[in-house]
Amino acid sequence: MSRADAVGLKATPAIPRELASGGLTFDWVMVALCAWLQGGGFLDGWAHNHGRVDASFFTPWHAVLYTDFLAVAGWLVGALVHNRAKGAAWGRALPPGYGLSIVGVLVFGTGGIADTLWHYLFGVEQSLEALYSPSHLTLAVGSALIMSGPFRAAWQRRDRAATPSWGRLLPMLLSLTFTLSGFTFSAQVLHPLLPLRRMMALPGVPEMMLYLQSLLIASVLIQIILKMGFVLLAMRRWRLPPGSLTLVFTLNGLLMCTLDPSNDYGLIAPVMLTGLVADGLRSRLQPVPERPWAFRLFAFVIPVVFYLCYFEALRLMKGWWWSVHLWTGAIVLAGLVGWLLSYLILPPQEPQAEHDR
User: Fold this and answer.
1) What angle do CA 282, 220, 268 make, to 5 degrees?
2) Distance separating alpha carbons of residues 320 and 327, to the nearest angstrom
3) 273 CB-near residues (< 8 Å, 6+ apart)
4) Angle between helices 268-285 and 244-257 (to 10 degrees)
């Protein structure tokens, strides 16, 4: 390196960490905006469950939801532009933990556009379909990424105090509550505080259809949690030999098929195919704990592959009664459940406390 280059490097000022540090003030603003956003979502849900909506997009309930989306998007984009103008790199222009929140803004906006297109192509969802259509699940993912920002910020922050105070942890707790509430909203049909019989009064929803739809959603959630929970746990602990997941998936599928009184083993095909895809993807991605992004991608893709193959096999063999809103939403939901489960099996790395450094 020449002397001129060295002088040039010395003359370049270091970017202070304070530019993108955020802190509790930033967290509290986000919590207030997230309360507004979540309140708009539940207000819209209340309107749907009480028969106060129609097929129009322009409703008072949507106005509350989407005006706050614009507010939270403005706050995050404003912070990004402000810190970038002060010299922060793009990767550090938002406080730690809020990078995924700006991604959530993009996902939510995309979901809003996709929802309009979805309604144009397939019509407006009815009853439980409104919870699980792919466009609505996209909105749910976007809002979850936004509302979990203060939680991620607190996770990445080094706590100097041995026992953090309410003042430091309350934004994190509220963020956790809002994010949890978003997921329980999406799974409201399975929630003990909202018994299914209370939803029977919804206009135009046959009782048996509601039960069958609820059973479908419950089966997707439970089976993916069981299947991927065991598989991801084994993958975290061992470097499995080739063909391991094909063996596990196929043998489990054969055992379950023996319980079918009709002795119809045709549905074993999507199970075997998923096992083969899982082994091939595992060899390609190397989803080990040292590569968490690959681990989480694997956890998302395999449930999607399974239910995509399952529904196609079911259509070819027996036909189906599920609407396009519900079966496509079930596929997306399966992937999201696997992705979330990966965070329990392989949690994000915790930062070192100051006294440990």
Assistant:
1) 65
2) 10
3) 305, 309
4) 160
* Residue in the structure block whose two tokens are 């259809």: 209
pLDDT band with cut points at 50, 70 and 90 for residue 103: very high
Tokens, residue 70? 């614009």
Q: What is the DSSP letter of 96?
A: T
Q: Where are the domains of the chain?
A: 18-156+167-196, 207-345
pTM as predicted: 0.76
pLDDT for 356 equals 46
Quote the CA–CA distance of 94 and 298 in Å, as a whole number.
28
3-state helix, strand, coil in the chain (%, to 5): 75, 0, 25
Burial of 166 (0-12, 13-18, 19+ CB in 10 A): exposed
- How many CB atoms neighbour CB 282 within 10 A? 21
Report long-range pairs for 315-320 (Cβ below 8 Å, ≥24 apart): 317/264, 317/266, 317/267
